[in-house]
Amino acid sequence: MHNLDKIEFRRKSSTVRKIRGVLHHVVLVLLAIIWIFPVYVLVVDSLKTTGSVLTTPILVPASATLHSIITVFEALITQFFNSVVIAISTAVISTFIGAMAAYYFYRISSRINDVIFTVIAIATFIPFEVTSVPLDKLLIEIGLFNSIPGLIFSFLIFYLPTGALLMSIFLAVLPKSTIESARIDGANDWTIFSKVVIPLTYPGLISTFIFIMIETWNNFFLPLVATSTPSVSTISLSLLSYTGGYGVLYNDSFAAALIASIFPLVVFILLGRYFVKGLMAMGTGSKG
């Protein structure tokens, strides 16, 4: 009788596991559909002609043409590469300097450093809109208004604290015994940082890089207040030009949105596995 109870219990447990597995897959499929749906709309409607986009439902494909995508890309090519330069430069500098700052706070613990770190953490929550007027005045005074270096400088003001805050969380999971072992072997701070800290925290570095790069790429407000000509504008700001007060060319709007989403999507696909590893390390670090 006891053996029959065990068999029945195992059968019920197996059934529960199967049901849970099916439910998990259903949820994943639903999430995938939710994520793919806007991409599908962008692709389908950017391939339509001006006439077909007005006469066919938004979800129904029509005769495909690359005319809108090619035309829009030729119009946005300058802004596209401006965004690439600005986003990569901001992300690289913010991640590297943020990692150096995080290593400093990790190595030296004091009340003053705790206060400085708190200020850095608070700085990550300052809205862009609050600093628009002083930021414009600063850029004009140092001669960087309406320029690519000026935009990079503006983004660094906001994302350097973000890089330091994120990297400090990743460094929290790094055993201090590893650092002390390298120091006993005669390594200086730069050698420890470059040869020990960076290799051991590369998922965190890549996660921070991806996060800051995407945030910079999607940012609309800073290019709006820090530029005045299209030649130094970014693609996020240029998308506004495809929405007019008297009408909208929907196929061009969809094509512009599709082009604007390609670069961050490709970067995330190539580096996504490191981003996930970084998030896992962040969760472990936040618990410590």
From TrEMBL:
The chain crosses the membrane at residues 21-43, 84-106, 112-130, 151-172, 192-214, 254-276. Residues 80-271 form the ABC transmembrane type-1 domain. This is ABC transmembrane type-1 domain-containing protein. InterPro entries: GlcU_transporter, MetI-like, MetI-like_sf. It is a multi-pass membrane protein. GO terms for biological process: transmembrane transport. One of its GO terms (cellular component) is plasma membrane. Gene3D superfamilies: MetI-like (1.10.3720.10). Keywords: Membrane, Transmembrane, Transmembrane helix, Transport. PANTHER family: ABC TRANSPORTER PERMEASE PROTEIN (PTHR43879), GLUCOSE IMPORT SYSTEM PERMEASE PROTEIN GLCU (PTHR43879:SF1). Belongs to the binding-protein-dependent transport system permease family. It holds the Pfam family BPD_transp_1. It is found in: Cell membrane; Membrane. It comes from Ferroplasma acidarmanus Fer1.
